[in-house]
Design a protein that fits this description.
TIM Barrel; 19 strands; 6-stranded antiparallel beta sheet; alpha/beta
Length: 395
């Protein structure tokens, strides 16, 4: 049963905003992780990440870096990083990905010989790192031509690659946890078609990449459609998501911080099981422009950014909370009531979209806020040029 003070608070909020709409309570919060470039992790990066014990990190193990001579595997690059990370007990999701110039001229491994070679590489990687890596992801964004190079992206071709790798991995290490690739553009339809055609399907996890230039709350429809695409409903993981500063020059560090928080809570409302934010940082000049502007730190100067502080704050709050127990939607805003680690105490998260005006949060009840806000004695206005705002507060 909901506490009386909670009911009274939500009722007051609804009366204060005639357009407010009560929604059913939502349960468990998603785990929050971070995408990293494993090959760039140094001692500074490892110790900075180490301030977040138990953090889930996701990074690539590149086939072309690991097999430079046919059937001979050299994982020196990854082994060095694993040694740096091991004292901090991270949960690691490793991506086995992309082509290899030794096979199919480096294009997607779609012919039988290339598929077998990729499967052998996958089994070798799992055998080497099974004690350090908790989850494995087969390929990355196979629905996008720039990632599935060469032939046109095809759900059947990806299903065959996944089957080959999955069977090879399970033969080498039966206990290994394996999930399919994250789908670019949150393309759950490609995932559903591949899942239906796979010998190992239907897959229990649907991984999406949620990049968008619209409000992060639009992810709710994508996740719910993916979950409803088959029976039983798959668990939905968002294995990449971020907002690039290159997309919108008006995005400040505060705006990016607010978008990060809004994205996480939007995914929580949608029922996603995990969210991996993209990304920690890079100094690799070979990273394409599409991968730039997302950084939380400057790894070259060994300096964190304001958005890193926002990530740290969100991670710690997500670890201390357990579930959403209430939701109210108003005009350009959403308010969530969060159960604080089963103590029976609650705090509130108000997600404010652009041009939102919040009139019912007393200044003294605000715990912290992220975003470009204009404050008055009686209200908080979110400027129309910002990325919105997030306010954590008491009743």
């Amino acid at each position: 049963m909901l506490r009386r003070d909670f009911v009274e608070t939500i009722t007051a909020a609804a009366l204060a905003h005639r357009s407010a709409q009560m929604r059913p309570a939502v349960a468990t919060l998603p785990s929050l992780g971070l995408c990293v470039h494993l090959e760039e992790i140094d001692e500074w990066a490892a110790s900075t990440l180490g301030n977040l014990p138990g953090l889930a990190i996701r990074g690539d193990i590149f086939w072309s870096h690991s097999e430079v001579t046919r059937s001979h595997y050299a994982f020196d690059e990854t082994e060095g990083v694993i040694r740096l990370l091991s004292p901090f007990h991270f949960s690691i999701l490793a991506i086995l990905d992309y082509g290899n110039p030794l096979y199919s001229r480096g294009n997607a491994p779609v012919d039988s010989a290339a598929r077998r070679a990729f499967a052998d590489f996958a089994a070798a990687a799992v055998s080497r790192f099974r004690a350090s890596v908790g989850w494995w992801q087969i390929y990355n964004e196979p629905n996008l031509p720039q990632m599935w190079r060469g032939p046109k992206p095809d759900p059947t071709a990806y299903a065959e690659l996944y089957d080959s790798a999955y069977i090879s991995i399970k033969r080498a290490a039966p206990e290994t946890k394996v999930i399919p690739a994250g789908m670019g553009g949150a393309d759950w339809r490609f995932w559903a078609q591949a899942s239906e055609r796979a010998r190992t399907g239907p897959w229990p996890v649907c991984a999406l990449h949620a990049y968008r230039r619209t409000d992060p709350e639009t992810i709710i429809g994508d996740v719910q459609q993916a979950a409803g695409s088959m029976t039983p409903a798959p668990r939905v993981w968002i294995t990449e998501w971020g907002y690039s500063r290159l997309w919108r020059p008006d995005l400040t560090e505060e705006s990016v911080s607010a978008l990060l928080h809004r994205s996480y809570w939007g995914a929580a409302v949608a029922g996603a099981e995990a969210v991996f934010w993209y990304h920690f940082g890079t100094k690799n000049p070979q990273v394409p422009a599409t991968g730039l502007g997302f950084e939380l730190v400057d790894p070259e100067k060994h300096r964190t950014r304001r958005a890193w502080d926002a990530f740290v704050d969100l991670y710690r709050r997500s670890k201390s909370a357990t579930r959403i127990v209430g939701r109210v939607d108003g005009d350009q805003w959403t308010r969530l009531t969060i159960d604080n680690s089963g103590t029976g105490e609650h705090f509130f998260v108000t997600l404010a979209r652009q041009s939102a005006k919040i009139t019912d949060i007393p200044r003294e009840s605000i715990l912290i806020r992220w975003g470009d806000l204009q404050s008055g004695d009686a209200d908080v206005m979110v400027p129309s040029t910002s990325g919105g705002a997030v306010i954590y507060h008491r009743a």
